[in-house]
Structure formats: C-alpha cells, structure tokens
C-alpha cells in the first residue's frame, strides 16, 4: 500500500469526525502539517486513533515504545510512515514462517 493511500484512509476513515468537529475537511490537512496545530488531540483522541489505525490496517502498535509512538503522531506523513513500516514488518514475519 502506498503512502498516499494510507494518508487518505487515515483522513477519511479514522479521523473524519474529529476533523469535522473542528470545522475541517480531510483535504484541509496537508501531509506535512503538524497535526497538533490543525486539530486538538488529547490522550483519549490519540488512543482512539491508534485503535482505528490498528483495526483498519491490521497492525499492532501496542508493543511500540509509547514515547516513540506519540512522536509518530506529528504529521499525516509520519503516521503513514509508521503504518508502512509496520505493514512491511508483518510481511517480513510472514515470509519467515
């Protein structure tokens, strides 16, 4: 899956309600915009995003260092990189079995 596809899925399926509550549409957030400057996320919002990402992409982020995981929530691009990396890791593990 390509980075742009991942970003679109995050914007359109995982956070659309959060965006609309702030008067934004998915297209209002650029790939490299700081998420914290565009929408306000508290720890519960971030947790819900993590759960949504895990469910949507079939990945497990629970084993990641929490500080590192939090840092990946800077931009849509960094979130997409995180998902890409986790998907690639899954493929590697499947290939080893």
Description:
With 97 residues, this protein is mostly helical. It has one domain: Orthogonal Bundle (Non-ribosomal Peptide Synthetase Peptidyl Carrier Protein, Chain A). Helices cover 66% and strands 0% of the residues. It has six helices and no strands. It has helices spanning 3-14, 16-21, 35-38, 43-57, 66-71, 76-96. α1 packs across α4 and α1 crosses α6 (76-96). The chain is globular, with a radius of gyration of 13 Å. The chain starts with a helix and ends with a helix. The mean pLDDT is 91.
Characterize this entry briefly.
This protein is mainly α and 97 residues long. It has helices at residues 3-14, 16-21, 35-38, 43-57, 66-71, 76-96.
H and E order? HHHHHH
Number of strands: 0
Strand content: under 5%
Rg, alpha carbons: 13 Å
User: What is the CATH C-level name?
Assistant: Mainly Alpha
Q: Which consecutive residue ranges, at least 5 long each, have pLDDT under 50? A: none
| CATH-derived architecture | Orthogonal Bundle
Number of domains: 1
Mean pLDDT: 91
- The name of the CATH superfamily reads ACP-like
Report the biggest beta sheet as strand number plus sense, adding barrel if it closes. none
In one word, what is the shape? globular
Ends distance: 22 Å
Helix percentage = 55-70%
CATH topology: Non-ribosomal Peptide Synthetase Peptidyl Carrier Protein, Chain A
Protein name: Acyl carrier protein
Domain Carrier: 5-87
Organism: Paenibacillus phyllosphaerae
InterPro entries: ACP-like_sf, PP-bd_ACP
Topology:
Layout (H helix, E strand, L loop, with lengths): L2 H12 L1 H6 L13 H4 L4 H15 L8 H6 L4 H21 L1
Helix pairs in contact: 1-4, 1-6
């Amino acid at each position: 899956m390509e980075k742009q596809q991942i970003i679109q899925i995050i914007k359109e399926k995982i956070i659309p309600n959060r965006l609309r509550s702030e008067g934004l549409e998915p297209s209002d957030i650029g790939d490299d915009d700081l998420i914290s400057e565009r929408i306000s996320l508290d720890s519960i919002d971030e947790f819900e995003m993590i759960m949504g990402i895990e469910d949507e992409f079939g990945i497990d982020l629970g084993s990641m260092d929490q500080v590192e995981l939090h840092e990946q929530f800077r931009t849509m691009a960094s979130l997409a990189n995180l998902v890409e990396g986790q998907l690639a890791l899954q493929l590697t593990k499947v290939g080893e079995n």
